[in-house]
Amino acid sequence: MGSMNKSSVVLLLFLSLFLFSGNVVEVEGAWCATPSGRFAGACFRNANCANVCASEGWPSGICDSYRCLCRREC
């Protein structure tokens, strides 16, 4: 009976962590992104992407899956 109590407690703790882990409040704003219209080739450096996005009027740019995404806060 003692091992069943231990496993019940462990299960209860695990479920508690699982249920309460989704209640995280995001402090940062959401980002809207669109692929760059001028970036040529595969994107490897965020700085290069950000420079091209700045020339397109976007405040930020990042590489994502080898493409340059221009971003701004929504």
TrEMBL record:
One Pfam family in the UniProt entry: Gamma-thionin
Record SUPFAM superfamilies: Scorpion toxin-like
Matches recorded under InterPro entries: Defensin_plant, Knottins, Scorpion_toxin-like_sf
Signal peptide: 1-29
Residues that span the membrane, as ranges: none
PROSITE patterns according to UniProt: GAMMA_THIONIN
BP GO terms, sorted: defense response
Keywords: Disulfide bond, Signal
All residue ranges annotated as the Knottins-like domain in the record: 31-74
Family annotation (SMART domains): Knot1 (SM00505)
UniProt xrefs under PANTHER family: DEFENSIN-LIKE PROTEIN 1, DRO1 PROTEIN-RELATED
The protein's name in its UniProt record: Knottins-like domain-containing protein
Organism: Acorus calamus
Lineage of source species: Eukaryota, Viridiplantae, Streptophyta, Embryophyta, Tracheophyta
